[in-house]
Amino acid sequence: MRVLVLYAHPVETSFHAAVHRTVVEALARAGHQVDDCDLYAEGFDPVLSRQERIDYHDLARNRRNVDPYVERLLKAEALVLVYPVWNFGFPAILKGFFDRVFLPGVSFRMEGGKAVNNLQNIRKLAAVATYGGARWKALLVGDPPRKSVRRVLRAQTRPLGRVPYLAHYDMNRSTEVTRSAFLRRVSKEMERF
């Protein structure tokens, strides 16, 4: 299966970089063809420009600045997001990817004034996230990233079955033991993805 991994962390020596490596290596061991999209390393610009917003609904023009990313998304059969949760949301670079690449004609199409799911090629979806705070804090604010993955992205794609959401909470107080256990969990989940 062709898996697009969207990775959004700027520090190559971080624990999240180890999470990213674990995801990519486990998917490859399982026989998947991995398209590893490291948004920071690729220099992805998350800012939706004025002209891009003007051209947003113009299907002949809206892809022109992000077409290579659109093509990668459209070739994928699965999508795995790997990101830290900052301020109870996605990192700006990942949110910008959704704003600039999940366009009309790409992730949805308009029919009779309603948005209709268009990413039928994405049959599997998963997310691997780290949170600085405890799980109860994320739950207190509604855990927006989890809901975005399990509700919004799921509605734009066609996952068959469950949508794994692997989260390591309380990174501010994590230990080598908790981090190692999380990496093992991620590896097992990605190997059976």
- H/E element sequence: EHEHHEHEEEHHEH
Would you tell me the structural class of the helices and strands?
Answer: alpha/beta
Tell me how many strands there are: 7
- Quaternary form: single chain
Low-confidence stretches: none
Alpha-carbon distance between the two ends: 10 Å
Beta-strand residue percentage: 15-25%
Strand order in the sheet with the most strands: 2-1-3-6-7
Tally of separate helices: 7
Helix content: 25-40%
Shape category: globular
The pLDDT mean sits at 95
Indicate the radius of gyration in whole angstroms. Answer: 17 Å
Largest sheet: 5 strands, parallel
Descriptive overview:
The protein is of the alpha/beta class and 193 residues long. Helix content is 38%, strand content 21%. The longest helix is centred in the last third of the chain and has 16 residues, at 176-191. The protein starts with a strand and ends with a helix.
Please give a handful of descriptors for the protein shown.
193 residues; alpha/beta; five-stranded parallel sheet; two-stranded antiparallel sheet; 21% strand
Give a concise summary:
The protein is an alpha/beta fold. The protein contains 7 helices and 7 strands, in the order βαβααβαβββααβα.
Helix-strand blueprint:
Blueprint: E1 2-7, H1 15-29, E2 33-38, H2 50-54, H3 67-75, E3 78-85, H4 92-101, E4 108-111, E5 114-117, E6 124-131, H5 135-140, H6 144-156, E7 165-168, H7 176-191
Parallel strand pairs: 1-2, 1-3, 3-6, 6-7
Antiparallel strand pairs: 4-5
